[in-house]
Amino acid sequence: MNASDFYELASGRRRGVGASLTRAALRVAETPYALAMSWRNRRYDRGRAEMHRLSVPVVSVGNITMGGTGKTPMVAWLARWYRRDFIRVALVSRGYGATISRNDEALELEQLLPDVPHVQNADRVAASRMAIEEFETQLILLDDGFQHRRLARDLDIVLLDALEPFGFRHVFPRGILREPLSGLRRAGVLALSRADLVDAERRRAIKAEARRHAPDALWIECRHAPGGFRSAVGREASLDSLRGKRVGAFCGLGNPAGFRRTLELAGMEIAAWREFPDHHNYTRDDVESLRRWTASEQIEAVLCTHKDLVKIELDQLGAAPLWALSIGLEITEGLPELETRLAKLRPAPEDD
Predict the structure, then answer these.
(1) How far apart are CA 104 and CA 278, in angstroms?
(2) Which of 41, 100, 122, 325 is the most interior residue, by most CB within 10 Å?
């Protein structure tokens, strides 16, 4: 079952006896997972589980839902914001089963932020300490860190995807929540990503519901701003260059609908579409399948995300050029207040 099929099931849009029975079974499986997450959070909240504080500030970027909410553009924006003042920032993440090779998010961030070290380790406390010692890091950006409570943080930024902010109001596997919504109370900043993909009334409704769980959190809204296309060898193309052409698109994301909507709003007419699982590692068979797909659909160009491109590392799929959509983050509401929060964590200037 791909992500879109699961979303149809979890949302209740898929009807019928079979779908209802499946949701009921998933609801039974949800209960122990939700209870376990609540018990774990209570242990940290009451000081029964140890949290490790570092010698430098820690800013965490995370989700309360599974799948893509736009963490990578936010992490890149924050790193660049601090780097403007020449603060030595390091990224720390767990990774997704990466061993010898770097995973997609690490490769993408390395290209976006060549002057920012990125340390991946299942033990993020040890990774952060290593970054401080080896790189003289002055501030840690913890990627995908909201549920990682062992490492104390000075600011928790939690992204809510405007297209499905509350995970169908069920914890996995019945929905896509990583923990019950009550966990939002730990957030210092709630960031509504892809805010431009819903209308003002929907944004107000999301904000009101989020505020019930996190009344003291700063509320900001963001949009993913397409900036053009980039190839695996570094060639660039404008958005206008592909408008009106027969294009295909594919992605391996937790929320493929968000990527498709972004392409459509950028003026792309998607003639063919394919989905792969989140963090998919593309094999030779996958690439051959994509080549046959582009030929059979008579596609003039193929579009994907930067995360997909760094793993495929090809400039063409058959006769069709392969392009990744370049995405930047634009904060459309709450920017001055966010910058005030970030500035409070700015390290003091060092003596010459």
Answers:
(1) 10
(2) 325
For the four alpha carbons of 53, 59, 63 and 67, in that order, the dihedral sign comes to negative
The strand pair at 270-276 and 89-93 is best described as: unpaired
**Distance (Å, whole) CA 340 – CA 233:** 39
Q: Are 238 and 214 in contact (CB under 8 A)?
A: no
CA atoms within a 13 Å half-sphere pointing along the CA-CB vector of 1: 10
Q: Is 327 helix (H, G, I), strand (E, B) or coil?
A: strand
**Alpha carbon distance, N-terminus to C-terminus of the chain:** 58
Q: Where are the alpha helices (DSSP H) in 271-315?
A: 284-296, 306-312
Is-contact 191 157, C-beta < 8 A? yes
Whether pTM > 0.90 for this model: the answer is no
Tokens 């160009």 map to which residue? 301
Residue 54 Ramachandran class (φ > 0 left, ψ -120 to 50 alpha, else beta):
beta
- Do 11 and 169 contact (CB within 8 A), yes or no? no
| Integer-rounded Cα radius of gyration of the chain | 21
Instruction: Name the β-bridge partners of 329.
Output: 224
Number of helices (H), then strands (E), in the chain: 10, 13
| DSSP annotation string for 213-235 | H-TTSEEEEEEEEEEEEE-TTS-
User: How does DSSP classify residue 241?
Assistant: G
